[in-house]
Amino acid sequence: MLAIRLPDPIEKRLAVLAAETGRTKTTLAREAILEYIDDLEDFYLAEARARQNRKAIPMAEVERELGL
To answer: Among 11, 16, 31, 52, fewest CB within 10 Å belongs to which?
Structure first.
């Protein structure tokens, strides 16, 4: 169970969307949270993998490779 307080403008937008789509505010909020959690999980997983595989390359080597 989760109860949240939303600022009035967000609450109004959610209510309008619920009315227009025939869905409940709870359903819309649940869908939005799941979508956001999916995105965050992907981001943090990618970030963690990037840190594990990160190989530092000295700037001088990058410049030499690029002919700078």
So the answer is: 52
Residue that is written with structure tokens 């949270």 in the block: 33
50 — pLDDT class (breaks 50, 70, 90): confident
3-state secondary structure of 3: coil
In whole angstroms, give the CA distance from residue 50 to residue 5: 36
State the virtual CA torsion across 15, 20, 24, 28 in degrees, nearest 10: -80
List C-alpha distances in Å: 16 to 3, 42, 49. 20, 30, 40
Q: Looking at residue 53, what DSSP letter applies?
A: T
**Dist. CA 17–CA 28, nearest whole Å:** 8
